[in-house]
Design brief:
With 407 residues, the protein is an all-alpha fold. The protein is built from 15 helices and no strands.
């Protein structure tokens, strides 16, 4: 009885800590705000070298997926989370103090694959909520984590530039400090399923066959999340180019910073209202998010055509860009919850890993196609392509919603 009470206290404490841990460790804080500035001004890297870093990181993520999953299954979720946070610390140290391109590249290669391990925090949360018989609280807690992340990144976006101007290395020192805090927090994470289980080493290997609905979840997430992610990057660049057509460099930078701040605020608002919308609409929320994605790209596209009234032009484009940011986290949270609901405890490690792998492969492939297309066509047409992808994703999500109803 005493052991049961102790276990329950550990689970409850872990559940209280995990939203803040997730929010703080969801990226390399501060580095993401000044990465290009740090690489170009401090490290003296060229645009080609920076692009190559992104390419090799994507390839490393795909290549390490299978061996990483075997390690995760062997050592368990909690140790995997710790490995992920340690990899992020090593990445920040190598990027900060690397004296040559090779060292920086090694640091950057550790960056994204670290999340293969760290992503097991979602499985731990689901396990703990199942133990407490509070499975339906997953959306609530995961959404809290996204709110923490969006608030922190907004604050960082506002202050990182000023800190960088004072001392080019200070944002990276702060990044390293947060990585250390995350490692310490990871030792407060407890998985109710792993108690009295050293590892999965001695347990018989179970061949996992995912259901048709899980395959559809992978497809939906890979396509729409990729569309949102690429839409954020290309949409930001597209708005910048449109500003440059009408304003000089100083005004462009000022207006663009306002747009970025508004998008960060939109991201916070999106996370705050998502839980209320989900409580009312349940699985229909997926269709709402898909439709909003189409509207977002339509706003960016239509706004770019309104050259006669510049105020309306950039307000419409900003609304579109803000919508993209507001949708991103809720869609991730919803799809992760949906996946965990439709997989067994034995399947969840692999399912979470494969969900991200499907997205990575899709994003890398479409990004490569866009890079080739941009040699011949304008970014304007890439926005149209993204809107078409969002429409295709809506079709997939309509089918997914029907499958969920029928089950």
């Amino acid at each position: 009885m005493e052991n049961t009470k102790l276990k329950k206290r550990k689970v409850e404490l872990s559940n209280k800590i995990i939203p803040y841990f997730m929010g703080l460790s969801d990226d390399l804080m501060f580095f993401i705000a000044i990465n290009n500035l740090f690489f170009t001004i401090v490290k003296g890297l060229t645009a080609a070298q920076i692009t190559f870093l992104t390419t090799i990181t994507g390839l490393a993520y795909i290549m390490i997926q299978v061996p990483a999953l075997k390690i995760i299954q062997k050592i368990g979720n909690v140790k995997s989370i710790r490995i992920g946070t340690i990899m992020l610390l090593c990445s920040s140290l190598l990027i900060t103090f690397g004296s040559n391109y090779t060292m920086i590249a090694i640091g950057y290669v550790l960056y994204q694959p670290a999340f293969i391990f760290k992503r097991m925090d979602h499985v731990v949360l689901k396990n703990n909520l199942s133990y407490l018989k509070k499975d339906n609280d997953y959306i609530k807690i995961a959404n809290q984590a996204k709110i923490v992340y969006s608030i922190i990144t907004m604050v960082i976006a506002l202050i990182a530039g000023g800190i960088f101007a004072v001392n080019h290395y200070m944002p990276m020192y702060l990044c390293i400090g947060i990585c250390i805090i995350n490692i310490l927090l990871s030792f407060c994470i407890f998985d109710s399923r792993e108690e009295n289980q050293n590892t999965n080493q001695d347990s018989p290997k179970v061949k996992i066959k995912f259901s048709q609905i899980v395959g559809m979840i992978f497809t939906s997430f890979a396509l729409l999340y990729t569309t949102i992610s690429l839409g954020q990057n290309n949409g930001k660049l597209f708005i910048q180019y449109n500003l440059q057509e009408h304003f000089e460099a100083g005004l462009t930078a000022t207006f663009f910073s306002f747009i970025i701040v508004s998008s960060r605020i939109a991201r916070i608002i999106g996370n705050i209202i998502f839980k209320k919308i989900y409580d009312k609409l349940k699985d229909k929320v997926n269709l709402i998010l898909s439709v909003l994605t189409i509207i977002a790209f339509a706003c960016v596209w239509i706004g770019s055509c309104l050259n006669s009234i510049l105020v309306i032009k950039f307000i419409v484009m900003t609304i579109g860009f803000d919508l993209i940011l507001a949708i991103r986290d809720p869609f991730d949270t919803y799809m992760t919850d949906l996946l965990l609901k439709h997989t067994t405890a034995k399947e969840q490690q692999k399912a979470i890993s494969y969900l991200q792998l499907a997205r990575r492969i899709t994003e890398t492939s479409i990004s490569l196609i866009f890079s080739i297309l941009l040699i011949k066509i304008d970014l304007f047409y890439i926005i149209i392509c993204l809107m078409i992808l969002a429409i295709l994703a809506l079709g997939i999500n309509i089918k997914l919603e029907k499958m969920i109803k029928e089950k």
